[in-house]
Specification:
Elements (H helix, E strand, L loop, with lengths): L7 E6 L8 H10 L3 E6 L3 H4 L2 H8 L10 H6 L2 H7 L2 E7 L1 H9 L5 H8 L4 E5 L3 H5 L1 H12 L3 E2 L3 E4 L5 E5 L3 H11 L9 E6 L4 E4 L2 E3 L6 H12 L3 E6 L11 E4 L3 H11 L5 E4 L6 E3 L18 E3 L3 H6 L6 E8 L3 H11 L4 E6 L10 E8 L2 E9 H24 L1
Parallel strand pairs: 1-2, 1-3, 3-4, 4-5, 8-11, 8-13, 11-12, 13-16, 16-17
Antiparallel strand pairs: 6-7, 9-10, 14-15, 17-18, 18-19
Helix pairs in contact: 1-3, 1-10, 5-7, 6-9, 11-15
Bound molecules: cytidine-5'-monophosphate.
Length: 404
């Protein structure tokens, strides 16, 4: 069995010539252990017949919202609920536009709106269509909502042109899904994650904050969810979509973040503090907007509670993971934090003008009492998956030590 074992994959096929590769995609997904149900748009059914997909998927294929027999068997909402992940391959320019607009004008578009499962798209179209500002805008909108885009590749196109717009090969698509799909290592666990910056009010219109984008914490929450955990994400103000299947609690200040964490802590197995909590807050935020009168202005600051240390001091306590963003002496500072805050694991990254904050990639080194692992550098979502696997591994090691 492959790494998609037991996963319910909803495969949407739209009307492009690359649809001829979709039956092979079904076969490969099934080889990885996935259960696949196929939904065609009416245009896709002109390229490949439903019968072909029925034969390779082993299930009836749907291509209409108005199919009474199919709605009686597995209605479209049940199909949306059934999916652990949804992949649209090939995804035409038209379909991406409809998805970006939130239309529900056919069965597949409706399912994409109705499912809480992570949604992946594999665009395939002529290179001019791919480069058109309308398509570029649609893709950006979809990505900002958390839709994951696979490809396209460059090369010879069915229209005789050469350029970007070829659908990734079925083997590449399957590998991409399998690589990011979790291994179930946190199945049955409850994971609480903090992410993003906090804002500390100076007056009713101004605040102190930092450059945290929340990307690392959101990636950890998504990876923990993919590993089978129930995930709650307590997030400061960020510009990110909620990861699929994750409950997000939005907060603004460190005090609010701490209160939300305390409220959610009971029953939590793993706590990951990825938020860049402001260390200080204005002692007395002004009740009215501070006026521009003085040449120099003094603002008294007081310490914020350390949320992470608070969780580590709780009894019973979850497995506690902290982040350490350091500009220098990475290992020494990370180890110091591990001990001072009594953490089970610390993930350290170097920050500077061109590293760490507000980027999609990162470099992480993990330290725990008596060990360390370099997780290397790469996309935050890939590092997050490795970190989650390491957390599961360390938890198992901890339990074995307790049992022996
Ligand atoms: O002490 P420092 O801020 O460098 O520690 C970073 C780690 O501690 C992060 O995991 C961060 O989320 C957590 N932290 C916290 N509450 C604070 C300060 C930091 O949870 N007030």
């Amino acid at each position: 069995m492959g790494s998609l074992a037991g996963k319910n994959v909803l495969l949407g096929v739209t009307g492009g010539i690359a649809a001829y590769k979709a039956p092979d995609l079904v076969r490969r997904l099934r080889e990885q252990g996935a259960e696949v149900r196929v939904v065609l748009t009416p245009a896709a059914a002109r390229f490949v017949t439903p019968l072909t997909f029925q034969a390779v998927s082993g299930h009836p294929v749907r291509d209409s919202l108005w199919d009474e027999a199919a709605e009686a068997a597995m209605g479209h909402i049940e199909l949306a609920r059934w999916a652990d992940l949804a992949l649209v391959a090939p995804a035409t320019a038209d379909f991406l536009a409809r998805l970006a607009a939130g239309l529900a004008d056919d069965l597949l578009a409706t399912l994409c709106l109705a499912t809480a499962a992570p949604l992946w798209v594999a665009p395939a179209m002529n290179r001019q269509m791919w480069a058109h500002p309308a398509t570029v805008e649609n893709l950006a909108r979809l990505e900002s909502r958390g839709v994951r885009v696979l490809g396209p590749a460059e090369g010879a196109q069915a229209c005789g042109e050469t350029g970007a717009g070829r659908m990734l090969e079925p083997a590449e698509l399957t590998a991409a899904l399998a690589a990011e799909d979790g291994d179930g290592s946190l199945q049955g666990r409850r994971v609480l994650v903090t992410a993003g910056p906090t804002r500390e009010a100076l007056d009713p219109v101004r605040y102190l904050s930092n450059r945290s984008s929340g990307k690392m914490g959101y990636a950890v929450a998504a990876a923990a969810r993919a590993a089978g955990a129930e995930v709650v994400l307590v997030s400061g103000p960020v510009e990110l979509p909620a990861p699929a299947g994750v409950r997000v609690i939005g907060v603004e200040t460190a005090a609010q973040m701490q209160a939300a964490v305390q409220a959610e802590l009971p029953g939590t197995d793993v706590f990951v503090g990825a938020a860049a909590v402001a260390d200080y807050r204005p002692a007395e935020p002004a009740g009215q907007k501070i006026k521009k009168r003085e040449e120099a202005l003094q603002v008294a600051l007081v310490r914020n509670p350390d949320i992470l240390a608070g969780v580590a001091a709780a009894t019973p306590r979850p497995f506690v993971v902290g982040f350490a963003a350091e500009t220098h002496d990475l290992e020494a500072n990370a180890r110091q934090k591990l001990e001072a805050k009594r953490l089970d694991l610390v993930a350290a990254n170097a920050v500077g003008p061109d590293r760490g904050f507000d980027r999609d990639d990162n470099a992480l080194r993990a330290f725990w009492p008596g060990g360390e692992r370099d997780l290397g550098s790469g996309a935050k979502r890939v590092l997050a998956k490795q970190l989650v696997e390491l957390i599961a591994e360390r938890m198992r090691a901890g339990h074995q030590a307790e049992d022996s």
